[in-house]
Design goal:
By secondary structure, the protein is of the alpha+beta class. Helix content is 31%, strand content 28%. The protein folds into two domains: 162 residues, Nucleoside Triphosphate Pyrophosphohydrolase (Alpha-Beta Complex); 71 residues, Winged helix-like DNA-binding domain superfamily/Winged helix DNA-binding domain (Arc Repressor Mutant, subunit A, Orthogonal Bundle), CATH 1.10.10.10.
């Protein structure tokens, strides 16, 4: 029914794919969906109605996977002629797709890439429209992705690392409270490199973007300080010409 209606209601040749990212210390993860019941994984996405804004289409498609509120940013368009490789996809006719609809879904599609940021603790994942399962996958595990979705993830990570000091990336991935090592691990996961511990601590504390709210109770080691993000100072730091860098 979706495709039958889509051939008349959706824009031809253009789609959306979303790299939805979350942080589960020490790993940066992204959302994948199992294609039908095969051992093939894709990024969430979909098509755009004839009278629909791109951003609205992105949010609408992600609602099918359980997302009602998330930071979402368009980052690149992917349009290589060979990006739709049907050799990776099971025979659509085996799923009851008619020749007419098969011709529509296998035409050349340019896809608009978005990355989204969420706290996975607040999300109850749903399978989506065409998938049998949704799950979080570690950012370095791209082998099971089909089509050009590994390329889309790599580009999203590159843009995310560039956006770290200009957009509220940390605010959308951190839990309400965290330790200094957890904050450092988040920055390292995004930047894909290690950061000097002493330098990181000094710059973060000097910036004033975090506030101490207590101590972590532990009988085995020295209790760690617990912090929360000062959102006003954090946003101000992103707007300043001299940005916090590591």
């Amino acid at each position: 029914m979706y495709f039958k209606r889509g051939t008349e209601a959706f824009l031809p040749h253009i789609s959306i794919n979303c790299v939805v990212l979350t942080f589960e210390s020490p790993n940066l993860k992204f959302l994948v969906q199992r294609l039908f019941k095969e051992d093939m994984w894709v990024l969430p996405g979909g098509h755009i109605y004839l009278e629909e804004n791109l951003d609205d289409a992105a949010y609408r498609n992600l609602k099918l996977s359980g997302f009602n509120d998330l930071f979402l940013r368009q980052f690149k368009t992917f349009g290589d002629t060979g990006r739709l490789n049907m050799a990776h996809i099971p025979d659509p006719e085996s799923f009851g797709i008619s020749p007419e609809i098969l011709k529509w879904v296998t035409q050349r599609f340019v896809t608009v890439g978005y990355y989204g940021l969420v706290n996975s603790r607040k999300i109850k994942l749903q399978p989506g429209l065409f998938s049998s399962e949704s799950r979080w996958m570690e950012i370095n595990n791209l082998d099971s992705l089909v089509l050009d979705h590994a390329e889309i993830v790599l580009e999203a990570r590159k843009v995310l690392s560039e956006d770290l000091l200009s957009f509220p990336v940390a605010a959308n991935l951190l839990p309400e409270t965290f330790t200094m090592p957890e904050l450092k691990t988040l920055y390292e996961a995004i930047l894909s490199r290690t950061i000097d511990r002493g330098s990181f601590r000094r710059k973060i504390l000097r910036s004033g973007i975090i506030e101490k709210v207590g101590k972590q109770s532990s009988a085995l080691r020295r209790p760690a300080d617990i912090y929360t993000l000062n959102h006003d100072k954090y946003i101000k730091s992103l707007l300043e010409e001299t940005k916090l860098g590591f």
